[in-house]
Specification:
two-stranded antiparallel sheet; mainly alpha; disordered N terminus; Rhopdopsin 7-helix transmembrane proteins
Length: 317
């Protein structure tokens, strides 16, 4: 039997870029690098504006800061190994580093779903109880919601990642992406992986579905409230405050559902399509969220204009 199939649990895993396109790795890395830089700049700018501008010290923007921080976390978690594979052909990754990367990627994905749910609650309170908005969503309560979202994600992913440390790995040790995902790693385990197969479907998928259903229910109540407003201008103004959030929800859930369908039903689709969809799933929402809020939110636009004016005036000194 070839040595690659022997029980070599201590051997590092091998990451995979775009099979068959190795000659074009440097070209492929350029759009990815541009995307990574754009994500870092966009989300860091949002965080800076929210911290620096007192006009943005409101619950809505605190939740937006949580979303930006989550997007930065996903990007910084995947970026080193992706660029390492494409630039340096550095494919080896130790078990501990791989499991840690998988933990952070999946945890932050659940955090993002939770933050979008919290943002829906924020819009619900702002429109249903505008006079009590700041008294209901105090800074302390916003912090508690953020901590709760983070703890929920950390604890929900922990059981399946801890079990990865216990499994023997006697398969080829070749992963199908340039970053570690739980569903990739368990395929290489030579053990009973029933729990690791069922748990993500029942708990993680169920949690994301529940978040989405609650968000939909919140917007049904919001729409009901808005339709009860007599003034057409006031109705439009109320709905306009929700547009950015709705766009972010669509960007996040459409990419997740698209990736899920391709993995489940796209067995005959070329493998490069699976890989490309994975990059879209983990890069597109962090890239688009700052763009959406910059385009649709006047307060963010004003903050950006002040920031650019300040930078321009300093360069002229």
């Amino acid at each position: 039997m070839p040595s690659v199939w022997l029980n070599t649990s201590t051997c590092p895993f091998l990451l995979t870029g775009f099979p068959g396109l190795e000659k074009f790795y440097h070209l492929i890395s350029l759009p990815l690098l541009v995307a990574y830089i754009s994500i870092l700049l966009g989300n860091c700018t949002l965080l800076f504006l929210i911290k620096d501008d007192h006009n943005l010290h409101e619950p809505m923007y605190y939740f937006l800061a949580m979303l930006a921080a989550t997007d930065l976390g996903v990007t910084l978690t995947t970026m080193p190994t992706v660029l390492g594979v494409l630039w340096l052909n550095h494919r080896e990754i130790g078990h501990g580093a791989c499991f840690s990367q998988a933990y952070f990627i999946h945890t932050l994905s659940i955090v993002e779903s939770g933050v979008l749910l919290a943002m829906a609650y924020d819009r619900f309170i702002a429109i249903r109880n505008p006079l009590r908005y700041t008294t209901i969503l105090t800074e302390t309560r916003v912090i508690k919601i953020g901590v709760g979202v983070f703890i929920r994600a950390c604890l929900s992913i922990m059981p399946i990642i801890i079990r990865l440390h216990w499994f023997p790995y006697c398969q080829s040790h070749i992963l199908s992406h340039a970053f570690c995902l739980h569903q990739d790693v368990i395929k290489l385990a030579c053990a009973d992986i029933t729990f690791n197969r069922l748990y993500p479907i029942i708990v993680v998928f169920g949690m994301g579905l529940l978040d989405f259903l609650i968000i939909c229910f919140s917007y049904i109540l919001i729409l009901k409230t808005v339709m009860g407003i007599a003034s057409t201008d006031e109705r439009a103004k109320a709905l306009n405050t929700c547009v950015s959030h709705i766009c972010c929800i669509l960007v996040f859930y459409v990419t997740v559902v698209g990736l899920t369908f391709i993995h489940r039903f796209g067995k005959h689709i070329p493998h490069v399509v699976h890989i490309t969809m994975s990059y879209i799933c983990y890069l597109f929402p962090p890239f688009m969220n700052p763009v959406i809020y910059s385009i649709k939110t006047k307060q963010i636009q004003s903050g950006l204009l002040r920031l650019f004016s300040l930078c321009y005036s300093r360069t002229r000194l």
